[in-house]
Amino acid sequence: MRVLFIENNMSSQCNSSHNVTFFYKLVEKEIRENWTTRDSLLLGLGLPFSLIVVLANLLVMVAIVLNHRFHLPIYYLLGNMAAADLFAGLAYANLILNTGPWTRRLSKTQWYIRSALVDISLTSSVANLLAVAFERHQTIITMQLHSTMSKRRVLLLIVSIWVAGIIMGLVPSLFWNCECDHDDCSTIAPLYSRRFLIFWAGLNLLTFFIMVIMYSRIFFYVKCQSRNVSPHTMEERQQTVINLMKTISMVLGAFVICWTPGLITLLVDGLMGKNSNAKKYEKYCLVIAECNSLVNPIIYSLRDVEMRKTFKWILSCLCRKGDCQQRESLPTDTGSQLTEKTLTTLHTYMLEDQVLLEPEDTKR
Fold first, then answer.
1. How far apart, in whole angstroms, are the C-alpha atoms of residue 169 and residue 342?
2. Could you tell me the pTM of the whole model?
């Protein structure tokens, strides 16, 4: 009799007739009938911000396509990261246009699609950050100016990033939701399972720690190699280490600032449920996380002098309504390529030290 009661209870919970409003009421998350000042502010600022994110990342992608000097594995990854961030801007705009009082008109399928777009875009952005960290790690550790990855491998890596993002976006709608277990419903995403949110937040935190380990190893490796250089190169060595630390601080700092609030909020909601009051902060955390899509092109692209020159050329063409001549080849500014400068400096110093340490008979 007890088994029969449990089966009947589960079948009643899995009733497909339950709409989105039912789950919002279940977790005591209010769907307002009228727009509040906060909702109007998020709508008024969110849409222009999404447009800026889309245009900024589109500019990065166009620059990489037009400038043949960017046809290298690292820039292909940066271009794909820009594509993921562009998609994030579109997904965030779609979320804004289907939130607040407009949430009532959504079917469960539409609600899952709205949430899946955000999951796909943010997962792809984080995966791209990890891919860039992996590429820089391999390049610097092997003392190369550019990665030796073939275009085929880069393409497979890019495809893998998007496949992972799509899978993470589809998992909640396909099977990892709370439609059959109402006690497991999230207060932030009422149709999502709290266990899924714990898993998703934990996965992103793991990605963060992997990035920390990679960049830390790069720093200590460069610092260890620079100790072997000649005394007359001490000043330049210190400057190289300082520049490297600035880049590491910018990359990791942006990630921490933009993602930590949202990840903590998801974890608290997954662990505590209704007792967490996490739904009060979800929109602010989402805005901060979305800022990472705008910060990424600034960190990885605008620090590059060649990229800035390409931006100026593209914008000047647009201002002249397409009436522009073929872009002349710009001189490569190695100072704008921090990692290349680091590798070149260290590689030269290592060769000099090897020559100084060679026995006289060998030199003869």
1. 39
2. 0.78
